[in-house]
């Protein structure tokens, strides 16, 4: 059962990492000046002893490690605190926004796959050819075009041409421009990696052998792709996690009600506990996507799961 | 041939850096100065062709405030010459007090706005130059800080090993798991809503060090680990060299190559990050300009359609990052050819 053991090991590592992460974020939460009730203290209508009582009830007068333990147990049960700006439990808010971000990120991810694989493979098959040069130019330009500029450009295009809605969320047409401005920088990086990996893979002995036996070119490419896929899976896992970070600015530009939009909005409302819990949710998301990438990697390559 | 690819982007970057460094002298007005009567103005373009034909003395057409706000500015036929080395109110630059600026108008009632003005009547051109300095230096200082922390943490982990290694690498894992933008926004939550210009600059540099050190530490650690068992290090140790000596004279110099590659990749990423953060209102705060918050000002559709020149910070950002990416590419190629050991 090598696959099971591999998975178990990775799950254990992930659990440790998540624990460390939660501790780190709790440190941040704890170092915010004041606590949940600090603002009440300055409200004349609420008597001081009442605030103290409330603080005792909520356990905010407990020492650091007990507070951490109760915060963590709440977290495990899906309690992400309370949003004072929106006056409702933060977990509803955060999960709703996270699902919107996931919708955007999935769209971007599909585009990344659609750009990276055809372009990377076509470039690697004829190195130095015109497709290769075009792909390299795209990669260079794409790397220098941050989502910020692409988003602004896309917004201007939508405004000028009227082909796309200017902002908001809804149909696939709403999705296109935000997803594209997320996908271009990411695929500019990935296409370069895939091209290099494919060029290496096409030289490998088993691919050479396949070619020597007279396999049609597309079958040879498929042979090479399986070895080139290995590093790509890890990189795609990282890219999927990084989409979340990039989504912040794209969501702001296009008015997409996602997690990044929520974080920035909450920061300006000084709804700080929502900010930090969203940071934690985003980090958990990244950790889980790396775990998923490892799992896929093990599926693709028996050498990894038997190690 | 390989070197040639470095010259052009290096030159462009050098020019950008020099222009923004000289911003106090080159920009006709202080970046925070508001000309409230002349808000949202179109550029006053210096012309070289007057009623008497072509001249070498540039001038602009006079203008006056519109009768109603929002109307276009009427252009008058009176010409105002553009002067060089004009007197200005005193300002501080390079530790001295200056009373001269590179160009401007003699007429105290009229101003020259090369890129027009923003909604508060501030000169966009002046803000662009000053903002460039802020954006570029934050990126550079952030990379420097990240490199220092990364080298320290990486050599600690790789040389001392044991518990230090475990702690540093687990910390690095935590940083890797946190999306950079979210981490910095989370950090920003710890600071008060309003920060002074200096405090904001330091906050960003610290945040960049926190985001960037982990990548470098991981790379440096690997190199230190492998170098540590090489013969020349063993020899130095046998000769009785101290740990500090071995680390700084025998190990770290050989990591420079990798470090340079990592740093050149990190620099454009940090400049983009600064612009993005300032765009979101989390980074450099107005009235202090930076390319990111200038873009934020210009990012609504009304401004984009009426004053597209205000997207200039985006163009400069693009050029900067393009040049830095080209340089990073070249350095990666050169370093691949010359593996030292």
Can you lay out the helices and strands and say which pair or pack?
The complex is a heterodimer of chains A (307) and B (341).
Chain A: H1 2-30, H2 38-41, H3 48-58, H4 64-76, E1 82-83, E2 88-89, H5 90-125, H6 130-144, H7 147-161, H8 172-202, H9 205-212, H10 217-254, H11 259-268, H12 272-300, H13 302-305
Antiparallel strand pairs in A: 1-2
Helix pairs in contact in A: 1-4, 1-12, 5-6, 5-8, 5-10, 5-11, 6-8, 7-8, 7-10, 8-10, 9-10, 10-11, 10-12, 11-12
Chain B: H1 4-21, H2 23-26, E1 47-50, E2 53-63, E3 75-93, E4 96-105, H3 124-160, H4 162-177, H5 180-188, H6 197-227, H7 231-238, H8 243-280, H9 291-298, H10 301-306, H11 312-337
Antiparallel strand pairs in B: 1-2, 2-3, 3-4
Helix pairs in contact in B: 1-3, 1-11, 3-4, 3-6, 3-8, 4-6, 5-6, 6-8, 7-8, 8-9, 8-11, 9-11
């Amino acid at each position: 059962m090598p696959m099971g053991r591999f998975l178990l090991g990775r799950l254990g590592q992930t659990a440790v990492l998540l624990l460390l992460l939660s501790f780190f974020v709790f440190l941040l939460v704890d170092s915010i000046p004041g606590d949940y009730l600090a603002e009440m203290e300055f409200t004349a209508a609420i008597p001081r002893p009442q605030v103290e009582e409330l603080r005792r009830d909520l356990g905010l007068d407990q020492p650091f490690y007990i507070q951490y333990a109760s915060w963590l147990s709440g977290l495990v049960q899906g309690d992400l605190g309370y949003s004072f700006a929106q006056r409702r439990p933060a977990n509803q808010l955060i999960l709703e926004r996270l699902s919107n971000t996931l919708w955007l990120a999935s769209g971007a991810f599909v585009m990344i796959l659609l750009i990276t694989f055809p372009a990377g493979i076509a470039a690697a098959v004829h190195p130095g050819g015109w497709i290769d040069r075009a792909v390299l130019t795209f990669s260079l330009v794409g790397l220098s075009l941050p989502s910020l500029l692409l988003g602004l450009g896309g917004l201007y295009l939508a405004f000028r041409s009227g082909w796309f809605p200017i902002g908001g969320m809804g149909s696939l047409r709403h999705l296109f421009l935000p997803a594209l401005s997320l996908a271009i920088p990411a695929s500019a990086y990935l296409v370069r990696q895939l091209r290099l990996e494919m060029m290496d893979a096409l030289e490998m002995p088993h691919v050479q052998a396949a070619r020597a036996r007279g396999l049609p070119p597309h079958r040879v490419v498929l042979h090479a792709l399986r070895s080139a896929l290995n590093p790509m899976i890890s990189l795609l896992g990282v890219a999927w996690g990084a989409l979340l970070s990039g989504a912040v600015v794209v969501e702001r530009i296009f008015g997409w009600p996602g997690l990044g939009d929520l974080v920035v909005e909450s920061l300006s409302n000084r709804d700080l506990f929502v900010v930090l819990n969203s940071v934690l949710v985003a980090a958990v998301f990244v950790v889980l996507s790396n775990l998923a990438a490892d799992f896929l990697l093990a599926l693709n390559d028996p050498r990894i799961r038997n190690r | 041939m390989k070197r040639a690819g470095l010259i052009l982007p290096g030159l462009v970057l050098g020019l950008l850096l020099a222009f923004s460094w000289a911003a106090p002298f080159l920009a006709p007005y202080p970046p925070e100065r508001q000309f409230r009567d002349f808000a949202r103005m179109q550029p006053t373009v210096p012309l070289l062709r007057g009623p008497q034909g072509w001249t070498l003395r540039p001038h602009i057409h006079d203008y006056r405030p519109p009768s109603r706000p929002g109307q276009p500015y009427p252009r008058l036929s009176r010409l105002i010459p553009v002067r060089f080395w004009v007197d200005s109110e005193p300002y501080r630059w390079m530790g001295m007090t200056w009373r001269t600026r590179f160009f401007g108008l003699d007429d105290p009632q009229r101003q020259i706005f090369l890129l027009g003005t923003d909604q508060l009547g501030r000169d966009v051109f002046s803000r662009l130059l000053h903002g460039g300095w802020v954006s570029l230096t934050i990126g550079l200082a952030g990379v420097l800080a990240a490199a220092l922390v990364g080298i320290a943490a990486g050599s600690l982990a790789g040389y001392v090993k044991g518990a230090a290694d475990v702690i540093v690498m687990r910390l690095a894992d935590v940083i890797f798991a946190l999306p950079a933008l979210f981490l910095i926004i989370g950090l920003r939550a710890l600071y008060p809503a309003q920060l002074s210009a200096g405090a904001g600059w330091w906050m960003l540099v610290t945040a960049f060090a926190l985001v960037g050190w982990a990548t470098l530490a991981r790379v440096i650690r690997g190199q230190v680990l492998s170098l540590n068992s090489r013969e020349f290090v063993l020899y130095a140790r046998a000769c009785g060299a101290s740990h500090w000596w071995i680390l700084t004279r025998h190990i770290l110099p050989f990591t420079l190559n990798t470090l340079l590659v990592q740093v050149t990749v990190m620099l454009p990423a940090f400049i983009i990050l600064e612009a993005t953060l300032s765009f979101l209102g989390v980074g450099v705060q107005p009235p202090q300009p930076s390319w990111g918050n200038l873009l934020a000002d210009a990012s609504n559709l009304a401004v984009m359609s009426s004053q597209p020149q205000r997207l200039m910070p985006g163009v400069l950002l693009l050029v900067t990052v393009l040049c830095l990416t080209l340089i990073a590419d070249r350095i990666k190629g050169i370093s691949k050819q010359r593996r030292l050991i």
